[in-house]
Design a protein that fits this description.
- By secondary structure, the chain is of the alpha+beta class.
- It has helices at 2-17, 184-195, 204-208, 239-246, 260-268, 330-337, and strands at residues 23-29, 39-42, 45-46, 57-63, 71-72, 77-78, 82-90, 92-98, 109-112, 128-134, 153-161, 164-166, 252-254, 273-278, 286-289, 292-295, 298-307, 312-316, 325-329, 342-346.
- It folds into three domains: 22-90, Immunoglobulin-like, CATH 2.60.40.4270; 92-161, Immunoglobulin-like (Sandwich), CATH 2.60.40.4270; 166-346, Cathepsin B, Chain A (Alpha-Beta Complex), CATH 3.90.70.10.
- The strands form five sheets. Strands 12, 13, 14, 17, 18, 19 and 20 form a seven-stranded antiparallel beta sheet that branches. It has a five-stranded mixed beta sheet with strand order 2-1-7-4-5, with no helix packed on it.
- The chain is rod-shaped, with a radius of gyration of 44 Å.
- 25% of the residues are buried.
Length: 347
C-alpha cells in the first residue's frame, strides 16, 4: 500500500512539472493582395504560408521587414510573434494598334496594369478622314483614355473614305459650236441624258427640236426667247419646264432649293445634275421680273463630280470655258449657285 501511495505522489509531481506550450502569432500584410488570416504557430515550429493573390500583380515572396530588406522563406521556424510582408511585381498588358495606315502598323505597346494611356497618335491614310480610335473592329465603341488598362487590348483606327466622284461624260456638247449662244439649258440637259444612257444617237439640233417654249415671257413655262440669238425676252428656261422636258426621255426631278450635300448625294448615286449657276462663276444675285424671280449672269451647266479632299466640284460647261470640263472650288460654286439653287437631277 505504501508503495502505491508513493507512485501516486510521484505521478502528481511529474504532471505539475510538465512544460506549458508557447504559441506565436504570424500576421500578414498582403499589401493589396487578398486577406490572409493570422496563424497561431507553436514556438520553434516551422511554418508554411500560402501565396496571396493580387489582380494585375505577380507575387515575388514574403519579407519579415516592412521595407522588404529581409527575405523570408517558407519552412522557416518561428520563435516570436511576427508580421510577414508581401512583395509584388506589377504585370504588363499589351496594347495593339490596328491603323491601316499608309505608313504601316506600329509596334505593340507594353503598359503597366491599371495604367491609362493617352492615345494621341493620328495615323495617315491617303484619301481618308481619321475618325478616332475604337475598341471594336467595327469602330462603334470609342477608346476611352481615362479607363485603366487591365487586360490586353486591340485598338482600331476609324476611317471614312473621302468622297471622290467623277461621272463620265461620253459626249461633251458645246452650245457655241452649234451656234446656240443662249442654248445652255439644252446642251447641259443633253449631256446629262447621254451620261445616263439615254438619247445616245441624238445630236444637239435634233434634241433642241423637242424643247418646250414658253407661250409668253415667263421662263417658268418653257424657253422664253430663242437659244439661237438675243431677243427681247430673257432667252432662258428655269428648272420646272426643264424637268418636264427631261422626263420625255428619262427620270428627272426638280430639286431646286436643295443643299450642296444633296447635290453630292445625287452624284454618289451616279446622277448628273443640271445646275443654274452663272457665266464663269461670276457672283450672282436675284433679280425680279413681272413673271417671277431670275438671277444675274445666269448660266446652266451639268454637275458631274465632287472631290471632298480638295472640296471642289467638277463641271461640264456648255459654254466651253476652260475647255468645257473643269474643277471649281466649293466657294466659287456656292457664290454663283447659292442665291437661287436651281437644280434638276437626271437618271
Amino acid at each position: 500500500m505504501k508503495r502505491i501511495v508513493m507512485l501516486l505522489i510521484a505521478a502528481f509531481m511529474f504532471a505539475g512539472c510538465k512544460k506549458e506550450k508557447i504559441y506565436c502569432t504570424v500576421s500578414f500584410d498582403t499589401r493589396g493582395g487578398d486577406t490572409l488570416d493570422s496563424l497561431m504557430i507553436e514556438k520553434d515550429d516551422a511554418v508554411s504560408v500560402p501565396d496571396p493573390v493580387r489582380e494585375g500583380y505577380t507575387f515575388t515572396g514574403w519579407y519579415s521587414s516592412p521595407d522588404l530588406s529581409r527575405g523570408w522563406i517558407n519552412g522557416t521556424t518561428v520563435d516570436e510573434d511576427m508580421t510577414l510582408y508581401a512583395s509584388w511585381k506589377i504585370q504588363t498588358r499589351t496594347l495593339t494598334l490596328v491603323t491601316q495606315s499608309d505608313l504601316g502598323e506600329s509596334e505593340p505597346k507594353l503598359l503597366d496594369y491599371g495604367s491609362v494611356f493617352l492615345l494621341d497618335f493620328v495615323p495617315y491614310r491617303e484619301n481618308y478622314e481619321f475618325l478616332g480610335w475604337y475598341t471594336d473592329e467595327s469602330c462603334t465603341v470609342p477608346y476611352d483614355d481615362e479607363i485603366p488598362v487591365t487586360e490586353d487590348i486591340t485598338v482600331y483606327a476609324g476611317w471614312r473614305e473621302l468622297i471622290h466622284i467623277e461621272l463620265e461624260v461620253p459626249e461633251f456638247i458645246d452650245q457655241n459650236a452649234y451656234g446656240a449662244p443662249k442654248g445652255c439649258e439644252g446642251a447641259a440637259l443633253l449631256m446629262a441624258l447621254k451620261m445616263t444612257g439615254h438619247v445616245s444617237g441624238w445630236d444637239y439640233y435634233s434634241f433642241m427640236n423637242t424643247m418646250p417654249y414658253s407661250p409668253d415671257a415667263s421662263p417658268y413655262k418653257g424657253f422664253a426667247g430663242s437659244p439661237w440669238k438675243d431677243t427681247d425676252y430673257i432667252d432662258a428656261m428655269m428648272p420646272e419646264p426643264t424637268e418636264t422636258w427631261a422626263k420625255q426621255f428619262a427620270e428627272a426631278k426638280d430639286i431646286s432649293g436643295c443643299s450642296t450635300d444633296d447635290l453630292v448625294d445625287c452624284l454618289q448615286n451616279g446622277h448628273p445634275v443640271i445646275i443654274w449657276t452663272s457665266i464663269h462663276f461670276m457672283p450672282s444675285q436675284l433679280t425680279y421680273y413681272e413673271w417671277g424671280t431670275y438671277k444675274s449672269n445666269n448660266h446652266v451647266m451639268t454637275l458631274i463630280g465632287y472631290d471632298e479632299k480638295r472640296n471642289e466640284f467638277k463641271i461640264a460647261d456648255p459654254a466651253g470655258w476652260n475647255d468645257g470640263i473643269y474643277w471649281v472650288t466649293y466657294q466659287q460654286f456656292v457664290n454663283s449657285w447659292e442665291c437661287y439653287r436651281g437644280a434638276v437631277e437626271v437618271w
